[in-house]
Design a protein that fits this description.
Layout (H helix, E strand, L loop, with lengths): L9 H11 L2 E8 H4 L3 H8 L5 E6 L5 E6 L9 E2 L4 E4 L4 E4 L5 E3 L8 E2 L3 E6 L2 E4 L15 E4 L2 E9 L14 H6 L11 E6 L6 H13 L20 E4 L10 E5 L13 H9 L33 E7 L8 H16 L4 E6 L1 H4 L1 H5 L8 H13 L7 E3 L11 H25 L2
Parallel strand pairs: 13-15, 13-16, 16-17, 17-18
Antiparallel strand pairs: 1-12, 2-3, 2-12, 3-5, 4-7, 5-6, 8-9, 9-10, 10-11, 14-15
Helix pairs in contact: 5-11, 6-7
The protein binds guanosine-5'-triphosphate (GTP) and magnesium ion.
């Protein structure tokens, strides 16, 4: 069965986080999918610990209740942490201490005293004034209301970030500027960005450039295949206006597509990695560059070869990589591995993938959703977790922001270290 989608919008989640704090909401029950039935509700939600029940009268009237106690079919619960809420007007109604916050019974769904009883009869909720919750005259779930939808979420406390980041680090940029590559084998590490169309490759190059310029720049063309530049092999030296420039060249490619009819030819990825492809080369989907193609670099120097390959993957897609794309990238990976070139994954669009992160980038490593995406890509591409970096690009922004910079710079510093490892290995 495909994953059930939550009806909570990013805005609704944001509003709920004002009541609940930093939590993860895991959808247990959705009436329109599982049935408006007390029996199914109990089968899915009993004994799950803290939960949030959300009723939707329509897209605007959204209300429900939180309890930190288990649902069940008997035993009423006193729960001083319970509350009812109504999202329009952002209202929270506290429980009266010591009263029955949750009335458990097999004959109805979530029941917050008699103030708000879900699945009282199919889609209908009932609400009658009682002593349990501090309601007022303006609640929008008075008397009987027919619901379009009812969802129950397990509320999971966010325990610890899955990776530690020093968000206050102001030395990252200096560490990158002053990075000395192994024995000066090359002046600059050459890093290739590869990945599905629209994943954010060009935006990442612009973002890195922006961090070092301290203004949002747009050197690489963003916006997909419609743009001619997206079919061209472009390389960008990252330069600092004032002070030392980082020892980096970022190489932008055409996006990969699922079939063979469009997108970059995988042989060309390997041709770039080996250093055969000249700057400004126009990719041809149907056939890769040949030894007799104009500009073909026959005997590339170490500096012309790629020293690290970065796979750029969009974290906001429901399926992070389709089986066909996974297969394509795996094929590229195995050829890169033969050349012993390090590989990294950038998980882009974390702001779009998780509303918590969209609201505050410091949530990136607290977000279970982003962690799951990182694990998924790690598993599919057989990477170790320290090679996967969530980032948000500068895409809508017009000024730089410290938190966005930190994610980009953390990834970049690690990429430089992998470049260094590769150069050192060449010596052995
Ligand atoms: N929300 C969000 N959008 C992003 C981010 N990065 C890129 N985008 C958007 O994603 C779209 C595609 O970005 P590009 O940088 O053109 O992607 P690409 O991988 O270079 O695409 P191709 O060159 O076509 O393969 C653009 O509309 C960007 O504005 C991000 O971190 N967050
Ligand atoms: Mg691009």
């Amino acid at each position: 069965m495909s994953a059930i989608t939550s009806r909570l919008t990013a805005e609704a989640r944001e509003e709920l986080s004002e009541f609940l704090g930093k939590v993860n909401l895991h959808l247990l029950y959705k009436a329109s999918v599982h049935g408006f039935s007390a029996e199914v509700f109990h089968a899915k939600c009993d004994g799950q610990g803290p939960t949030l029940t959300v009723g939707y009268r329509d897209s605007y009237h959204i209300f429900g209740g939180y309890t930190s106690e288990d649902f069940g079919t008997d035993e009423n619960k006193v729960d001083d942490k319970a509350f009812l809420f109504q999202l329009d007007y952002r209202r929270k109604f506290a429980v009266r201490p010591g009263t029955v916050a949750v009335h458990n019974s097999p004959y109805h769904g979530p029941s917050f005293g008699s103030s708000l009883v879900f699945l009282a009869s199919g889609r209908w909720i009932t609400s009658s004034p009682d002593q349990s919750y501090c309601l007022d005259d303006h609640v929008s779930f008075k008397n009987s209301v027919c619901l379009e939808e009812c969802e129950v979420y397990r509320v999971e406390e966010l325990k610890a970030p899955w990776r530690k980041v020093n968000w206050k680090n102001s030395n990252l940029i200096k560490s990158i500027q002053s990075y000395k590559l192994y024995r000066n084998t090359v002046a600059k590490g050459r890093v290739l960005l590869v990945g599905p169309t629209g994943g954010g490759k060009s935006s990442f190059i612009n973002s890195v450039n922006s961090v070092f310029r301290d203004v949002v720049t747009n050197r690489a063309l963003v916006g997909g295949e419609a743009i001619t530049g997206a079919k061209m092999y472009s390389t960008y030296s990252i330069r600092q206006r004032h002070g030392a420039s980082p020892p980096l060249i970022l190489c932008d490619t055409m996006g990969l597509a699922e079939g063979t009819e469009s997108g970059m030819h995988i042989d060309d990825v390997i041709n770039i990695v080996k250093g055969h492809v000249p700057k400004k080369y126009q990719f041809n989907t149907a056939s890769p560059i040949q030894a007799d193609t104009k500009g073909y670099i026959k005997s590339p120097t170490i500096a012309e070869r790629i020293h690290c390959v970065v796979f750029v993957i969009d974290a906001s897609k429901p399926t992070i990589l389709s089986p066909a794309m996974e297969q394509k990238i795996r094929t590229i990976q195995s050829q890169i591995a033969e050349l012993e070139i390090p590989q990294v994954v950038l998980l882009t669009k974390v702001d779009e993938a998780c509303p918590l992160v969209g609201k505050d980038l410091e949530n990136t490593y607290w977000s279970e959703h982003i962690e799951q995406k990182a694990r998924e890509v790690q598993r599919k591409l057989n990477m170790i977790s320290s090679c996967v970096f969530p980032v948000k690009n500068y895409w809508i922004d017009i000024v730089c922001d410290h938190l966005t910079d930190i994610l980009i710079l953390s990834a970049l510093l690690q990429i430089l270290r992998y470049v260094d490892d590769y150069l050192e290995n060449l010596d052995d």
